[in-house]
Design a protein that fits this description.
Largest sheet: 10 strands, mixed
Protein name: Glycosyltransferase 2-like domain-containing protein
Number of helices: 22
Length: 657
């Protein structure tokens, strides 16, 4: 349709035309584009007033009453619409969804996948050179899997020059039915696990399919990342009609990822050497012995063992949909929990895996898994820094939550007053300054969040610093203990909390970066909502968290030189997080520390023209300073676009864009 409008009317169809004419563009019985449906669509274009005017202007003759000429033009239009040069660059997804679409819209994703495949074909300027990387891939086929296994075999035959061998465990009768034909040497009958000598191995199920050229794509990455012990890709499912649905467009690797379930997915490429190192350990796992079909859970146990103790850079996420599931995921969640608990008991006995409801939690929602990290025998002192000005209601409620509703026993509070003048506020500051845990600092001058926190940090005594807004309220007593537990983990420099608006909707579940700046993930979501791929209920590594409730180790704060005071109002917390990451420390967000946050309650929102200008000036400086990291945030899949309240599919790009 797009090519026909482009050729016939010199424009693309609008949304109304797409909805109105879609039935003409496909055959009613089969739902496919046929010659008859193309001719039907061509007649509509040729008979339109716009086509008449354009033709008469170009050719100087009228076609209004010339039936033969109309028919000839229809035939020419059908041919022209199928020419590659006329179809090039027309993205079906962008035509039908000009404002993009959310991930749970399967129809939109099916079109998006087609557009991505088209864009990748156009961008493929030269054929990949044959790689030296080889793969041994293993599949078990039962008597009822022959037909579905043919789908798998066909996908392997479309792997181009990739060097692969598929090892099939099956009876003689079943293997003969597979009839691999001329590729007999690549399809081997085996009864031995890990047969072969290829440096990389994978395991799949009958009916699963690789995307065309998937192994060549994977091999190209492994060529430049030879230290890889585990590589995982994005994936989806193909329904009986052949449509791509239920996309899993995954974020980058996070240390807690596998402890919360098999979030890595079906297509996992393992280093053979690493698998052999941990294989003996799997033989001792009692939970795996009695399973009738143990592949999924055996693979989960294998992944846990493979990633244990390796460096993060040895685990690679390849953000491309290279794998298509045959069946819906039906993993045994309870068994996976037992396997994860057993793994932790063996390798990290100080860590406990529990099911912990969030506070508050949406009725009927899944209970999230919490990885509870140990505390030190001597609890570290936490210095809580609270900038404030003339909002005694906020400050009073915040201090009450800290002093009366927080279980963690070792903290000091430093209230930084930025020029309050109201009598009620001055009286409150005078009162709280007499409390043995509270210190009040008076700092005059224009509001500069970075400067206020830096000056308080210089006066503080704690091993951990907690930057806290005065419009934050406590919801559960162990919130501070959870943040301390996370911040004491090896390599963790900053910890962020889950913040809710006063109406219970989500305000902060991490900050996502883009070339346009920083955006909170799924702001406004229901408090108990799990989010895409459970992003809102799982603790994980991020690039940045908000400074409204941010804990940082003092040694890290000092190492990076504190907060950059040139970011007076906006982006100072994001810049701090990025400098912490650049220094080699991790940023972790936990949903198990949940607080209420008014968001801009004391300072107000950036609403006036000077405030808006200041915000965008500081955002521009942030993006300029951290261009590479802003353009590709590891915590969000590059195929996704984060807006203020949604995760949307990103428009595919063509060569030259």
């Amino acid at each position: 349709m797009g090519a026909m409008f482009r050729v016939g009317l010199e424009r693309l169809p609008d949304q109304g035309e797409i909805r109105r004419l879609m039935r003409r563009a496909v055959d009613r019985k089969t739902g496919e584009v046929t010659l008859a449906s193309l001719r039907s669509l061509a007649r509509i274009v040729v008979h339109s007033d716009a086509f008449h005017r354009s033709y008469e202007h170009r050719m100087g003759i009228s076609i209004a009453l010339d039936a033969y000429l109309k028919q000839r033009l229809c035939d020419e239009l059908v041919v022209a619409a199928q020419l590659p040069e006329n179809r090039a660059g027309i993205m079906p997804f962008q035509l039908c969804y000009p404002d993009s679409a959310p991930l749970d819209d399967d129809r939109a994703y099916a079109l998006w996948f087609l557009s991505v495949s088209q864009a990748e074909a156009e961008n493929r300027l030269k054929k990949l050179c044959r790689s030296q990387i080889s793969f041994d891939i293993y599949m078990t086929v039962g008597t009822g899997d022959i037909e579905s296994s043919q789908l798998t075999l066909n996908s392997f035959f479309r792997q181009g020059d990739a060097d692969w061998t598929l090892h099939v465990a099956a009876s003689n009768e079943v293997f003969e039915c597979l009839n691999p034909g001329s590729d007999q040497k690549r399809i081997r009958h085996t009864a031995k696990l890990l047969e072969g000598k290829a440096p990389y191995v994978a395991f799949i199920e009958p009916g699963d399919r690789l995307a065309d050229g998937a192994l060549a794509h994977i091999a190209a990455v492994l060529e430049i990342r030879p230290e890889t012990v585990l590589l995982f890709t994005d994936e989806d499912r193909i329904d009986p009609a052949g449509n791509h649905i239920r996309a899993c467009l995954k974020p980058g690797w996070s240390d807690d990822q596998l402890l919360l379930g098999d979030t890595v997915g079906r297509l996992s490429i393992f280093s053979r050497q690493r698998v052999l190192e941990v294989a003996e350990e799997l033989d001792t796992v009692e939970e795996l012995r009695a399973l009738p079909q143990p592949l999924a859970c055996w693979l989960y146990a294998l992944k846990l063992a493979v990633v244990e103790g390796v460096k993060p850079e040895q685990i690679v996420h390849l953000p491309a949909v290279l794998f298509h599931r045959f069946r819906d995921n039906s993993d045994d969640v309870s068994l996976q929990r037992r396997l994860a608990k057993r793994h932790l008991a063996v390798h990290r006995p100080g860590i406990v895996l529990t099911e912990m409801p969030l506070v508050p939690v949406q009725a009927g929602s899944a209970c999230p898994v919490r990885v509870c990290y140990p505390l030190l025998s001597v609890l570290p002192l936490v210095s809580i820094i609270i900038p404030t000005r003339d909002r005694p209601d906020f400050l009073r409620a915040c201090l009450q939550g800290l002093l009366e509703e927080t279980d963690y026993p070792r903290f000091e509070i430093i209230v930084v007053d930025n020029g309050s003048i109201q009598p009620d506020m001055l009286a409150l500051l005078e009162k709280v300054s007499r409390h043995p845990t509270v210190t009040v600092l008076r700092q005059e001058g224009a509001f500069n969040w970075a400067r206020l926190n830096n000056q308080a940090a210089a006066r503080s005594q704690g091993d951990l610093l907690l930057l806290l807004n005065d419009d934050v309220r406590i919801l559960h007593s162990d919130w501070l203990e959870e943040m301390v537990r996370q911040n004491l983990r090896p390599g963790v420099g900053v910890v962020g909390a889950r913040l809710l608006y006063p109406d219970g909707t989500l305000q902060h579940a991490g900050v996502m970066l883009s070339r346009d700046g920083a955006t909170h993930l799924l702001r406004g979501a229901k408090a108990g909502g799990a989010g895409y791929l459970n992003a809102l209920i799982c603790q994980r590594d991020l690039s940045a968290v908000t400074g409204a409730c941010l804990m940082i180790r003092r040694e890290v704060f000092d190492q990076v030189g504190g907060i950059d005071e040139s970011f007076a109002v906006s982006c100072n917390d994001i810049d701090l997080c990025l400098r912490v990451r650049a220094a080699g420390w991790r940023i972790v967000w936990t949903p198990h520390a949940t607080l209420t946050h008014v968001d801009g309650g004391t300072r107000g929102q950036d609403a006036t023209p000077p405030q808006i200008l200041k915000h965008w000036q500081e955002t521009a400086r942030l993006v300029g300073r951290w261009t590479d990291w802003m353009e590709q945030d590891f915590a969000v899949n590059p195929a996704l676009r984060v807006t203020d309240d949604a995760l949307l599919l990103r428009f595919p790009t063509r060569a030259g864009d």
